[in-house]
Write a structure and sequence with these properties.
The chain has about 475 residues and is mainly α. It contains 17 helices and no strands. The protein is globular. This is Membrane-bound O-acyltransferase family MBOAT.
């Protein structure tokens, strides 16, 4: 069930009418039941695997505080390794199999004819990192393990963020699950407005842009010279509207139920450098990698060279996390190099933080470097990197930029400019208890949706991760 579908809306409305009127204790069982039902609509076998993961991590975390010394550490490493193997088998085994086949062919041997078929559970990267963070927090004694199995199960099966995150920290979400949910009129209005805005930008920006990208980037060999200079920013807005749209829907649904999820995006396209960009884009993943990988590797405590080496490791892992394929590995290395290059320029005094011109130029270069990097997601083999570079060696024909593309991005740009002007920490329509303002906004979105929305619906872009 897609968030932007009649099927989901009808199911959620039925669920919410019951949820709103029952006691807090009953709400917990409703949340867990609906989470299982929601995920099972994608694949019942994947649901069984998810429930197994829930039981495994809950049981393991209960034992860790009662152990000490080497035994405690061994059990913790076993838990982390098991989660990584779980992710690796279902997400990366096919890629490793194909890589081995390619290597055989590269040395003159016949490739592997048979190819195994392995189920890829949707959202596996998100909920596996969810569980790893829980085990780390328990091991480091930042939180106590859940005594109540249903509390942990709701944490792992909380349906607004189950498929695409954000990768919510246990220290934020679990206490909310354990406490009583108080739903106010403000919660309802803010939640509905966030949900509508998320569906709106998904349907009127991400989906049409997805079709444009598919038409203009089907094969890197047959592209019009220089067209990727135009396609790249379209992909950037497609991914942003798609993933930001899902995050808004998740935040809105959670707020309607009395929960507060972290904000996953904070106007990233206004960032003037790569460091700022990654503090505002997919914040839950960036901070996860910072806290659980970068800092564990030593962070910036062992000199400038080691600091940048740690960053390259982090971004290599970020590339692999996004998907099993050549393009994702190259993408991670590319973004790591962009970040290291900026840090080197700053380290040697070549970046003036108070320069208005450098800030504007940095915003343009940061946006375009990210946009060009997204082309790497589409690479099926390393040789296609050369085709991308060959296309980018030509100047684009500016007349190829469709006016509709520029018009379609306006609502999202205006909204982000408004939020930047208000300097909000979270997306906010400032509607609260003002239904009249809400109705005006709703009518505007409905009109724009009627004019520019495609009839068909696309899966969320990050479902593949």
């Amino acid at each position: 069930m897609l968030f932007n579908s009649i099927s989901f809306l009808s199911h959620f409305l039925f669920f919410y009418l019951i949820y709103y009127h029952v006691s807090d204790r009953i709400r917990k069982y409703l949340l867990l039941s609906f989470g299982i039902y929601f995920y099972s609509q994608w694949n019942i076998n994947a649901t069984v695997l998810l429930l197994f993961s829930v039981i495994f991590n809950y049981s393991l975390a209960r034992y860790i505080p009662h152990l000490s010394g080497k035994t405690r550490r061994t059990l913790f490493i076993f838990g982390i390794t098991s989660n990584l193997l779980y992710l690796g088998v279902f997400k990366y085994f096919i890629f490793v199999w194909e890589l081995f086949s390619d290597l055989k062919m590269g040395f003159g041997f016949p490739g592997l004819v048979w190819k195994p078929e392995i189920l890829l559970p949707i959202g596996i990267s998100f909920y596996t990192f969810h569980n790893i963070s829980y085990l780390i927090e328990v091991y480091d004694e930042r939180i106590r393990p859940c005594k109540n199995f249903f509390t942990f199960a709701i944490y792992d099966l909380f349906f607004p963020l189950l498929l695409l995150g954000p990768i919510e920290r246990p220290g934020n979400l679990i206490p909310q699950i354990e406490s009583k949910q108080i739903i106010t009129r403000e919660n309802i209005w803010n939640g509905i407005s966030l949900f509508i805005w998320g569906v709106f930008i998904k349907s009127t920006i991400a989906d049409p842009f997805s079709r444009y990208v598919e038409i203009h980037a089907q094969s890197f060999e047959s592209l019009e010279p220089g067209i990727l200079w135009i396609v790249a920013p379209v992909i950037a807005f497609q991914v942003y509207a798609d993933f930001f749209g899902y995050s808004l829907c998740a935040m809105g649904l959670a707020e309607m139920m009395g929960f507060r999820l972290m904000n996953n995006f904070k106007r990233p396209f206004f960032s003037s450098n790569p460091s700022e960009f990654w503090s505002k884009w997919h914040i839950s993943l960036s901070t996860w990698l910072r806290d659980y990988v970068y800092i564990k590797l030593g962070g910036n405590r062992h000199g400038f060279f080691r600091e940048n080496a740690n960053l390259m490791v982090v971004w290599f892992l970020a590339g692999i996390w996004h998907g099993a394929g050549y393009g994702f590995v190259i993408w991670g290395v590319y973004l790591g190099l962009c970040l290291v290059l900026y840090r080197c320029l700053k380290h040697y005094g070549l970046v003036k933080t108070k320069s208005r011109f450098q800030s504007l130029l940095g915003t343009f270069l940061t946006f375009y470097s990210f946009s060009l990097g997204l082309l790497l997601f589409r690479i099926q083999s390393p040789s296609e990197t050369y085709l991308i570079l060959r296309n980018l060696s030509h100047l684009p024909n500016l007349s190829s930029i469709p006016l509709m593309i520029l018009i379609t991005t306006l609502p999202l740009l205006v909204f982000d400019l408004w939020q930047e002007w208000k300097d909000t920490d979270r997306p906010n329509f400032f509607i609260s208890t003002k239904p009249f303002s809400f109705m005006i906004m709703f009518f505007f979105f409905f009109l724009w949706f009627s004019l520019f929305s495609p009839f068909g619906k696309q899966d969320f872009f990050y479902f593949q991760f």
